[in-house]
Design brief:
Blueprint: E1 2-6, H1 8-18, E2 27-28, H2 31-40, E3 55-56, H3 62-66, E4 71-75, E5 78-90, H4 93-101, H5 109-115, E6 120-128, H6 143-153, E7 158-163, H7 169-180, E8 184-189, H8 201-215, E9 220-222, H9 234-246, E10 251-254, H10 269-276, H11 278-281, E11 284-287, E12 292-294, E13 299-301, E14 313-314, H12 318-326, H13 338-349
Parallel strand pairs: 1-4, 7-8, 8-9, 10-11
Antiparallel strand pairs: 2-6, 3-6, 4-5, 5-6, 12-13, 12-14
């Protein structure tokens, strides 16, 4: 049987397909699905799907895979699954990146990562033979497990929150709004590949564990989302909403510049796209305004809840907070809880705070 060595990103896609995190996908996208997703944010079936999920192959493997009914997939020389290749096709890296990410700028981390892949792809159904022990296994939950948990608690309305950062008070503000109108909330930080300088999985999950244990009642479930960060802004917001629907959630928070990076996307562009697809998603979109601290109100507020002039407003700068934490400086408690910042400062001291 033919074989193919894959990387950790492709392995996680296989795991997510097998556990229906990426439902309705049953395998890696073929050529028709790929192009309809890139061009129209829908699968060939018409179902909404905004992000390509493909398996890239080296050019010297094309003939071998073309002549194979099934190809064994290996990660670090260990067989973990297989694919039944249905098509082999060539993508348009720069043109497609411009559609997916709204830019072909190599300074965009998602674009750079995509353009570093082989332009040759194969699509087809997958089988998962062996699942490796995940990072932070205590928070690794499948959709079957979360749905069972929600049912056991009698939760009917379940909010969900996506993040790649430890919680600060602006995040907490959004979460508490959703909790007020829900039976529970599923907090699911992404811990797959992220760009250099983003927070490590240990930092994010450790900080959220403190948040859930010390500050939230018993209606918050913490879990991980093991997939790569795309930094695709609006499209990725829709992608994240679909994933939370598959986990059994009934609503999904989309805040300011969801899944954005730099200045590539508009402040509320992700909300607008997600809301435009809401009727087809099977999950309610909660488009919440971006929180900030107002010295006039003396609390976290948004432009929808505060009328004070700009001179009273202090935006919560992630860049500034990273710099302070890495230098051992505790951010003001009006921005981040002391317990969270002290934990993160401790990780900074051991060089475990940021992705390398």
């Amino acid at each position: 049987m033919s074989s193919l060595e894959i990387n950790i990103d492709a392995y996680l896609e296989i795991v997510n397909i097998a556990h229906e995190v990426f439902a309705p996908l049953k395998g890696f996208m073929g050529e028709k699905d790929y192009h309809t997703v890139v061009d129209n944010m829908r699968l060939a079936s018409g179902k909404v799907w905004p992000i390509p999920v493909t398996l890239d192959i080296p050019e010297n493997k094309i003939r071998e895979i073309e002549n194979s009914a099934e190809v064994d997939l290996f990660l670090n020389s260990e067989k973990i699954g297989s694919i039944m290749p249905e098509s082999i096709f060539e993508v348009r890296p720069i043109e497609d990146a411009a559609r997916i990410f709204k830019t072909s700028d190599l300074k965009h981390p998602g674009v750079a990562k995509e353009l570093a892949r082989s332009k040759y792809r194969t699509g087809g159904r997958i089988k998962l033979f062996k699942e490796l022990l995940p990072d932070l296994p205590e928070w690794n939950l499948t959709p079957a497990e979360t749905r069972k948990f929600f049912s056991s608690r009698g939760w009917k309305k379940i909010a969900s929150f996506q993040t790649r950062n430890p919680p600060h008070l602006a995040h907490e503000y959004l979460q508490r709004i959703a909790m007020e109108v829900s039976d529970g909330i599923f907090l699911q930080p992404l811990i797959g590949w992220k760009k250099k300088g983003d927070f490590t999985p240990e930092a994010i999950m450790g900080a959220y564990n403190i948040m859930v244990r010390k500050f939230y009642p018993d209606n918050a479930l913490l879990g991980t989302l093991r997939t790569s960060m795309r930094y695709a802004g609006p499209r990725e917001a829709v992608f994240h909403a679909i994933i939370r629907r598959n986990y059994g959630c009934t609503s999904f928070i989309v805040g300011r510049d969801h899944a954005g990076v730099g200045d590539y996307y508009g402040k509320y562009e992700a909300q607008q796209l997600a809301v435009s697809f809401e009727k087809d998603l099977g999950i309610e979109i909660l488009p919440l305004a971006g929180p900030r601290y107002c010295s006039g109100c003396k609390c976290i507020s948004t432009e929808k809840t505060c009328a004070h002039a700009k001179k009273f407003i202090q935006e919560i700068s992630g860049t500034k907070m990273r710099r302070m934490l890495s230098s051992g400086i505790r951010p003001d408690e009006k921005f981040m809880r002391r317990e969270i910042s002290d934990f993160l400062i401790g990780l900074a001291a051991s060089n475990s705070l940021f992705c390398a």
